[in-house]
Amino acid sequence: MSGVSRFLRNASIILTVLLLMYGKTPCAAEEVQSPPVDGGWWARDGKKIGCDAGYLYDTAASAGWREAALLGGFIGATALIAGFLDEPVRRNVRGGGSRRGDALALAGRTYGGESAAIAAPVALYGVGFVSGSEGVRDTGRVMAEALILAELTTGIFKGALGRSRPYTGNGADDFRFFRWKDRYMSMPSGHTTVAFTISSVLASRINRWWASAILYSMAGLTAWSRVYDDRHWASDVFFGGAIGVASGILLSRAQRRCGDGAHIAFSPRLLVSGAGVAVVMNFD
Questions:
Q1: CB atoms within 10 A of CB 17
Q2: Computed from CA positions of residues 172, 177, 183, 189, in that sequence, does the dihedral angle turn out positive or negative?
Q3: Residue 195: exposed, middle, or buried by beta-carbon count in 10 A (0-12, 13-18, 19+)?
Q4: CA-to-CA dists, residue 212 to 16, 25, 96, 198, angstroms
Q5: How far apart are CA 265 and CA 253, in angstroms?
């Protein structure tokens, strides 16, 4: 990995951690809270993981006409993009070797890459564990759960649909079902799935409009980079982004139901003295 790639990866992780530690994540009073669990942190987290899994099962089991309508709208939107926009978007977005475009594409690839998918939840969980902040630790756990759900979903669709990547020259309509080869695993975009999962979890936990704008812009950059690199069609990144957002929101809702009300707060204080200036940060 190049120095630029490492820098962008680390910068994106640090940025998300700092954003996360600003503000509070509300826990609605009407939502069901799990009872206190005796034992150490591992017992509490194990209880929450089980509760999150139960929430996902309940959500799937209780799906009705509203969920069916949302699914139908999503399928219709994906089909429209694939039918009318994939080829034109590719012609206009595909990279031409400009230095600025290549640098932006590198940033997008890094934010949605495998390193970020591993490092972001591990870093958050580790910071929460070391600092004693249950809210930060919960965020790392929820992010890991959402990424597992999202990437499993994406992986299944990739292999089952067998869509040719743009660079193959086979066209946007070429599907070779169950081929399980990288050149035929274009839909949905895995990088875009990762980026939108990370951003949706952090946006939900921070619950600030400006944080959501920054985070979803970073995920959007990842989506753009996959088309720029000629690795995906526009409908692929739309599909992947939808999976990421859905996974992040579902697991964030599960945490609010199953959590104990812990939140994340970041309160900086500026101290000025004759010896200099210091910024003191308290994390709750």
A1: 17
A2: positive
A3: buried
A4: 11, 13, 31, 11
A5: 19
Could you tell me the two tokens for 34? 């799990």
Q: What is the gyration radius of the CA atoms in the chain, in angstroms?
A: 20
- Residue 51: left if φ>0, alpha if ψ -120 to 50, beta else—which one? alpha
What pTM was computed for the model? 0.79
DSSP 29: T
Kindly give the residue spans of alpha helices, DSSP state H, lying in 112-189.
Answer: 114-131, 134-161
**pLDDT (0 to 100) of residue 37:** 46
Q: Please give the domain boundaries of the chain with CATH numbers for all domains.
A: 3-283 (1.20.144)
Q: How far apart are CA 138 and CA 263, in angstroms?
A: 9
The long-range contacts involving 9-18, CB below 8 angstroms and separated by at least 24 positions, are 9/110, 9/113, 9/115, 9/116, 9/119, 12/107, 12/110, 12/111, 12/116, 12/218, 13/116, 13/119, 13/120, 13/123, 16/120, 16/124, 16/198, 16/202, 16/215, 17/123, 17/124, 17/127, 18/266
Under DSSP, the state recorded for 95 is -
In the predicted structure, residue 252 carries a pLDDT above the cut 70: yes
3-state secondary structure of 52: helix
| Backbone torsions φ then ψ of 267, nearest 5 degrees | -130, 95
Count CB neighbours of 66 within 10 A: 8
Lowest mean pLDDT among 36-40, 176-180, 208-212: 36-40
How distant is the alpha carbon of residue 116 from its chain centre?
10
Structure tokens at 144: 């890991």
Question: From CA 170, how far away is CA 46, in angstroms rounded?
Answer: 47
Q: Which residue has the tokens 């089980």?
A: 50
**Residue type, position 92, single letter:** N
- pLDDT tens for 84-123 read 999 999 999 998 778 899 999 999 999 999 999 999 999 9
